[in-house]
Amino acid sequence: MELTDNIYHRNINTNSGIFDYLIGAAEEQECKEAFLAYHFLRIAPAPPTADELARRAAEWLRKAFGVDVTFNVGEATKRLERLGLLATRGGRLFVSPLDAALVEPGRVWDGFFPRTPQITPQ
Questions:
Q1: I want to staple 79 with a disulfide (CB 3.0 to 4.6 A). Which of 34, 70, 109, 121 is the partner?
Q2: Residue ranges of the chain with pLDDT lower than 70?
Q3: Which positions ≥6 away from 97 have C-beta within 8 Å?
């Protein structure tokens, strides 16, 4: 229904427009999963297992939004690992503290836009 509404109301009437919309929605969902995983790992009183993390996130989603979902912890933790924010020891999941976690994405972002020398007016 959401896809149909978006296509009709926004006039996304090309195949590439539909694919762009679907890919964007999937990427957004993956980011949300990673953010939720990071948050629940960061606030956990003790490092949880992947199953414990999935249960906590699913329970929160059920209480907060009234939706019963299976939280895709595997993809969320893979994304956090790729970003260098997650470590696993003895089946337990650990994340970097927030201050340290903000450094790596900032470094990657800065790499997209190399600094250029500033031109001073004469």
A1: 34
A2: 1-23, 25-26, 117, 122
A3: 42
Give SS3 for 28: helix
Q: Where are the alpha helices (DSSP H) in 66-93?
A: 73-82
- Classify domain 32-109 by CATH architecture: Orthogonal Bundle (1.10)
pTM of structure: 0.70
Strand, coil or helix: 72: coil
> At 65, phi and psi to the nearest 5?
-125, -5
pLDDT tens-digit profile of 56-68?
999 999 999 999 9
Q: Which token pair is 25?
A: 């929605």
